[in-house]
């Protein structure tokens, strides 16, 4: 997402014209490019099936930026049960799908900026209107990512994330 929040990067010292407010990963942590040849595996921009046994959808962990009115988001993957995955697919293009009850899932994206790791954090997946990615709510634990989702982050934290993502160590 583009915005007018430029920043000077703490890692490279350069001024970046925009401060990114979202990042995402192209596949769940368990995806391996070797699965592309497997007829029981598929990866699209929104869904993933691995070997006909593991089912994932993409959603957003949204975090309020408390000192700006913006929202920061992580585009992540969560695993769903076969039944919930099937239900989500059945409703994928159905108007009113946001009335669907939430689905339980496991976070299937490793966000390296957080310790301990983020894979297998418990989540609740809230379906939104057609054309919008689901909202991923983390279980309210003491994990730093869950705390940030509940309490919000500052623009300084967004800048710190940007520096780390744009210039990984």
Number of strands: 10
What Rg is obtained from the alpha carbons, in whole angstroms?
A: 17 Å
Strand content: 25-35%
How many separate helices? Answer: 3
User: What is the succession of H and E elements?
Assistant: EEEEEEEHEEEHH
Portion in helices: 10-25%
Distance between the termini: 24 Å
Largest beta sheet, briefly?
8 strands, mixed
Mean pLDDT: 94
Total tally of structural domains: 1
Query: From the helix content, strand content and strand pairing, which structural class follows?
Result: alpha+beta
Q: What would you say this structure looks like, in words?
A:
It is a single chain. The chain has 169 residues and is an alpha+beta fold. It has one domain. 17% of the residues lie in helices and 28% in strands. It is built from three helices and ten strands. Strands 3, 4, 5, 6, 7, 8, 9 and 10 form an eight-stranded mixed β-sheet that branches. The longest helix has 12 residues. The relative contact order is 0.20. The model has no long low-confidence stretch (mean pLDDT 94).
Could you write a compact summary of the structure shown?
The protein is an alpha+beta fold and 169 residues long. 17% of the residues lie in helices and 28% in strands. It has helices at 82-90, 144-151, 155-166; strands at 7-8, 15-16, 22-24, 42-43, 47-50, 54-64, 71-80, 103-107, 122-126, 135-138.
Blueprint of the fold:
Blueprint: E1 7-8, E2 15-16, E3 22-24, E4 42-43, E5 47-50, E6 54-64, E7 71-80, H1 82-90, E8 103-107, E9 122-126, E10 135-138, H2 144-151, H3 155-166
Parallel strand pairs: 3-7
Antiparallel strand pairs: 1-2, 4-5, 5-6, 6-7, 7-8, 8-9, 9-10
